[in-house]
Write a structure and sequence with these properties.
Layout: E1 5-13, H1 15-21, H2 26-32, E2 37-44, E3 47-54, E4 57-64, E5 68-72, E6 78-85, E7 90-95, E8 98-105, E9 108-115, E10 118-126
Antiparallel strand pairs: 1-2, 1-10, 2-3, 3-4, 5-6, 6-7, 7-8, 8-9, 9-10
Family: Belongs to the calycin superfamily. Fatty-acid binding protein (FABP) family.
Pfam families: Lipocalin_7
GO molecular function: lipid binding
């Protein structure tokens, strides 16, 4: 269960550019830049529950590896995706022109999401 744990956002790159590209308003981008983020991942076999908290905003998604599921996107739209595991420390989701990779490297959770030529990267440290 490589992903189980609590993670605190340490740094992010290209937040504003990525959020603008997916349709988030400038006001929400500005307020979101400075929110401390935490993630909790509960991995039970192939079932995952990921809870992301930023300020008072909470986003909870659950999925089973390899099965189509509906999740809430950052825009709060419901999207259908399939998330696959590559090795034991990497999850990959692709939808239209967006690719998202979540991986464990040591005690860090690295989430890299790309849309076109814009890559957004979040690095969080395991805190529990």
């Amino acid at each position: 269960m490589a992903f189980n744990g609590h993670y605190k956002l340490q740094r992010q790159r290209n937040f504003a550019s990525f959020m603008k590209a997916i349709g988030i308003s400038d006001d929400l981008i500005e307020s979101g830049k400075y929110k401390e983020g935490t993630s909790e991942i509960v991995e039970t076999g192939d079932h995952f529950k990921i809870t992301v908290t930023a300020g008072s905003e909470v986003l909870i998604n659950e999925f089973v590896i390899g099965q189509e599921t509906e999740v809430d996107s950052p825009t709060r739209d419901k999207i259908k995706i399939i998330i696959n595991r590559e090795g034991k420390n990497k999850l990959v989701a692709k939808i239209q022109n967006i690719t998202s990779v979540i991986e464990i490297t040591g005690d860090h959770l690295v989430n890299t999401t790309a849309i076109g030529d814009i890559t957004y990267k979040r690095i969080s440290k395991r805190v529990g």
